[in-house]
Amino acid sequence: MLIVHHTPSPSMQAMFEAVVSGATDPEIEGVDVVRHAALAATAPDVLAADGYLLGTPANLGYMSGALKHFFDQVYYPCLDSTRGRPFGFFVHGNSDVSGTVRAIERITTGLGWEQAAAAVTITGEPGKEDLSACWELGATVAAGLMD
């Protein structure tokens, strides 16, 4: 499983760490979790993974430029080869995150990816329940990939 993230803030970092913790829970066996910053993830990384978790802040009503760059780099090289693969995503914003959610849903629909868990969207400082939801997101998508 590939986790692609842009974590420029303490809130995004906390969400990312919770997602990773869930995805790497010892009860989930046989799933290798690879983590790449959005600006470092490549088409070969996407092609090598069986599922994906995406994390981004909401910047000016849209995903971060880093995650958009990731999608721009992998969209056509991965379009036909990754259809049907499961994914999940998490978004943090200081106010509205709906534009970011819509953009991610549009792009992943175009790729033919299947959403395996509800998105985790958080505005403001993430609380304990928010981070628990991030942990569940990571665990859910990873558990769905177990052999």
Descriptive overview:
The protein has one domain (2-143): Flavodoxin domain (Rossmann fold, 3-Layer(aba) Sandwich), CATH 3.40.50.360. It has helices spanning 10-23, 43-48, 65-78, 98-111, 128-143, and strands spanning 2-5, 34-37, 52-59, 62-63, 86-93, 114-115, 120-123. It is α/β, with parallel strands linked by helices. 44% of the residues lie in helices and 22% in strands. The mean pLDDT is 97. The longest helix has 16 residues, at 128-143.
The CATH superfamily is known as Flavodoxin domain
How much β-strand is present in the residues? Answer: 15-25%
CATH architecture level-2 label: 3-Layer(aba) Sandwich
| Shape, per Cα inertia axes | globular
CATH hierarchy, class = Alpha Beta
Got a strand count?
7
Order of helices and strands: EHEHEEHEHEEH
Task: Quote the distance from N terminus to C terminus.
Answer: 13 Å
Note the total helix count.
Answer: 5
- Overall structural domain count: 1
Helix share, percent: 40-55%
In angstroms, what is the radius of gyration?
Answer: 14 Å
| Uncertain stretches | none
Category from helices, strands and their pairing: alpha/beta
Query: Do you know the CATH topology?
Result: Rossmann fold
Q: The biggest beta sheet, please?
A: 7 strands, mixed
Mean pLDDT: 97
InterPro entries: Flavoprotein-like_sf, FMN_Rdtase-like_dom
GO molecular function: oxidoreductase activity
Pfam families: FMN_red
Protein name: NADPH-dependent FMN reductase
